[in-house]
Design a protein that fits this description.
- It is built from 9 helices and 21 strands.
- The protein has about 450 residues and is of the alpha+beta class.
- The protein has a 6-stranded antiparallel beta sheet, covered by helices on one side. Strands 12-13-18-19 form a 4-stranded mixed beta sheet, with no helix packed on it.
- A hairpin with a 6-residue loop joins strand 12 and strand 13.
- It starts with 7 loop residues before the first strand and ends in a 5-residue tail after the last strand.
Length: about 450
């Protein structure tokens, strides 16, 4: 039941109005007279399964989770400043973030928002996800309505209604803040009582959110994608102006099979950096400079117009570089050495299986976010963040079960047998998902 305007919660907070409601509770705009400030109060609705627990256990679990949230400090997350229980309901008190939700912004732009702008927002959101995942928390409710943009352009990931603790060594972590989330943005594992969500669940939701922001349309739910795969439209099928790199990032983030998504927020952030650079490059290539003037121009105004156009072009390039936070070196026309990483060998009858990569270019290649894909084994291997292959350098990737991904520079171990089928093919993709090289077992494929 909705709380009435003016109601006092916890003998302190005065309810002003309802901000939003869903299956797992509601969010209210309220006033804190003690500190003379406005706050957002999240009212949490316990999942039916918690009815099997005693009130004391539910209260203790809520306090533990609220204390974890209160310990978070990140520029793209609101602070949780208080928590309490009242009339068998639980409440989180958070900073109220001024501004609009991204849901409101995309509703006002039915054709989708500018790619450069969305890329900047995505970078901020992934920074927040890196932070909460490092604290072994999963948000589980990322969607445009739960993201706010302040007047100064900062993005906040808000309303931790479904957040849960996550222990990678024991994914069966319990929590009282259960829920399915919103169908258009929730991954399939969030609907399966026997499955467990992890960092890659948030990756799916962020991918679906980017899909919506860039196309103006929310993606279809995973249940419909499963029952009617042909109904799913790729982002570029809806927005032809979207860059291919950006589409590849979104589609990988939204893979139904968890193992095919980005392994971490860091990996996805590295992939988006590649997409950001591509957007900047396209802008620079399309800047139109004025045609050459005749040697004896009859009017100085033509020269002035040419200079103005050049200055506008340079100013525009500088603006985009600032927006995308891209190194200024990308704006120069200076030729720089290039990397060229190729698969030079995929073994066939060896134990363990292995693959050789060589950088045949003249520059070092940071392979953060790059990954290897098996076309038969349907598995992927993600390169560690910060892995760099020097010019002329060769790296051997061994594939066998039980290995640990803690290699020296000359050897990377895959934790699973990725290449283990006759006729298999290995594909090397960069952070944006573009194919950089491929190799078969001899000529068997």
């Amino acid at each position: 039941m909705e709380l009435p305007t003016g109601q006092i919660l916890n003998n302190r907070y005065q309810v002003i109005r309802l901000l939003g409601a869903g299956g797992m509770g509601a969010v209210y705009y309220a006033r804190d007279p003690v500190l003379n400030r406005q706050v957002a109060i999240k009212q949490l609705q316990a999942e039916p399964i918690t009815g099997q627990l005693t009130a004391e256990r539910i209260q203790a679990q809520f306090q533990r989770e609220a204390q974890i949230l209160a310990s978070l400090h990140h520029p793209n997350l609101p602070r949780v400043t208080d928590y309490f229980s009242e009339n068998k309901r639980h409440y989180l008190v958070m900073d109220y973030i001024e501004g609009q939700t991204l849901q409101e912004l995309v509703q006002a732009n039915a054709q989708g928002l500018a790619e450069a702008q969305v890329l900047d927002w995505a970078d901020q959101l992934l920074s927040a996800l890196e932070y909460i995942h490092a604290h072994q928390l999963i948000h589980r409710d990322i969607k445009p309505a739960n993201i706010r943009r302040t007047p100064d352009g900062r993005i906040f990931l808000v309303y931790f209604g479904l957040v849960k603790s996550y222990n990678p060594n024991d994914p069966r972590t319990t929590t009282m803040m259960h829920g399915l989330g919103t169908p258009e943005y929730s991954p399939p594992e969030q609907y399966d009582p026997a499955a467990h969500t992890d960092e890659r669940s948030d990756i799916y939701s962020l991918g679906a959110t980017l899909y919506h922001l860039l196309t103006g349309q929310a993606p279809i739910s995973v249940t419909r994608r499963t029952s009617d795969p042909a109904a799913f439209r790729t982002p570029r099928a809806t927005n032809a102006h979207l860059s291919p790199d950006m589409e590849r990032v979104i589609l990988r983030a939204m893979e139904l099979e968890r193992g095919k998504r980005f392994a971490s927020a860091q990996d996805m952030r590295a992939a988006l950096l590649t997409a950001r650079q591509a957007v900047l490059g396209d802008f620079i290539r399309t800047v139109a400079l004025p045609p050459a003037l005749p040697r004896r121009a009859k009017s100085a105004r033509l020269i002035t117009a040419g200079v103005v156009l050049i200055m506008l072009a340079l100013a525009g390039a500088a603006f985009v570089a600032t927006q995308l936070r891209t190194p200024a070196a990308l704006l120069t026309a200076t030729q720089v050495p290039l990397a060229d990483v190729q698969i030079t060998l995929l073994s066939s009858n060896t134990t363990p299986e292995y693959l050789l990569l060589q950088n045949q270019g003249d520059a070092a290649q940071d392979m953060s976010g790059w990954y290897l894909e098996s076309t038969v084994g349907l598995q992927t291997f993600n390169f560690p963040i910060g892995f760099v292959l020097s010019p002329g350098g060769v790296v051997r990737i061994e594939s066998y079960r039980g290995a640990k991904n803690n290699p020296p520079q000359t050897l990377v171990w895959s934790t699973d047998a990725v290449w283990n089928n006759s006729g298999d093919k290995a594909i090397l993709r960069n952070a944006a998902g573009a194919v950089m090289s491929s190799q078969c077992y001899g000529d068997q494929c």
